[in-house]
Design goal:
Elements (H helix, E strand, L loop, with lengths): L2 E4 L19 H13 L5 E5 L5 E7 L7 E2 L3 E9 L8 H15 L4 E7 L9 H6 L3 E5 L4 E7 L8 E2 L1 H4 L8 E5 L9 H12 L3 E5 L3 H4 L9 E5 L2 E4 L5 H8 L2
């Protein structure tokens, strides 16, 4: 397969590999606006030329939207190959290009979020370990930081203390989220409406800049759902799932 790099210049014309093809959809518009602001910070979005879920997105770790300390590393936001694209070596192609590009930019290695067991919207730990990634830190909720150093003397990445122990003081349901994937622009108002109807306390915190995300009380900033201070899940809630949580 051929691959294309999404840039500021072609962003509006390119499909960004989600299940939604309409650029006017609020979820697509929100993610594209987020991408447009990240390109100047070194973000790379490489995808297969065929429409579908086959892409890698990475950024210098100092600009990552996660509370990590990873000096001179490249942070992989997402490596996603699914559906009919699986089983053709495309994940290897994308990761190999990320490694080549990162070495060319004199980075010390790569790091990425995962977990002991596969979780939604996180990279497959089995694949990462097969490619040489090693767990270098783990938060209390089981979210792991994995790394692939290029140099033996490279610093070992770690979570910031605020993310190491994901817990908040607020009661009720609290959602931290960004405009990355999963697309939340459509679903957050749904949760707000359900909470209002059911009379349950709910607060959505939209993390909108690097300072906020790098000091968030969770290793996963794209979607982190809390109940009475305790971390619940990074799996996106729709009305049905939220009602199930509320009703116990």
């Amino acid at each position: 397969m051929e691959y294309i790099r999404v840039t500021k210049e072609n962003l509006e014309q390119e499909h960004i590999c989600c299940a939604i093809s309409n650029n006017k959809d609020v979820q697509v518009a929100s993610k594209k606006a987020w991408l447009a602001e990240r390109f100047d910070e070194g973000l790379v979005f490489l995808k297969g030329v065929e429409r579908g879920k086959c892409f890698i997105e990475y950024i210098p770790a100092e600009n990552a939207w996660n509370p990590i300390v990873a000096y001179n590393y490249m942070y992989i936001d997402c490596l996603w190959v699914s559906g009919s694209f699986k089983g053709h070596g495309y994940s290897n192609d994308l990761l190999d290009e990320c490694i080549r590009d990162s070495k060319e930019k004199s980075r010390s290695g790569l790091c990425i979020l995962s977990s002991a067991k596969k979780k939604p919207f996180l990279a497959d730990p089995k694949y990462l370990k097969h490619k040489g990634f090693v767990v270098c830190d783990e938060a209390d909720n089981g979210i792991q930081l994995l790394y692939l150093p290029f140099l033996a003397e490279a610093d070992v990445p770690r979570f910031k203390e605020c993310a190491k122990h994901p817990r908040i003081t607020e009661t009720g349901y609290v959602l931290y989220y960004t405009s990355q994937c999963p697309f939340n622009a459509k679903y957050v108002p749904v949760l707000e409406a359900v909470a209002k109807e059911k009379g349950v306390p709910f607060k959505a915190i939209h993390l909108q800049n690097k300072t906020e995300v790098q000091n968030a009380p969770t290793p996963i900033t794209t979607y982190a759902f809390f109940r009475d201070g305790e971390y619940l899940t990074n799996e996106q809630m729709n009305e049905k799932r939220f009602l199930k949580v509320i009703n116990g």
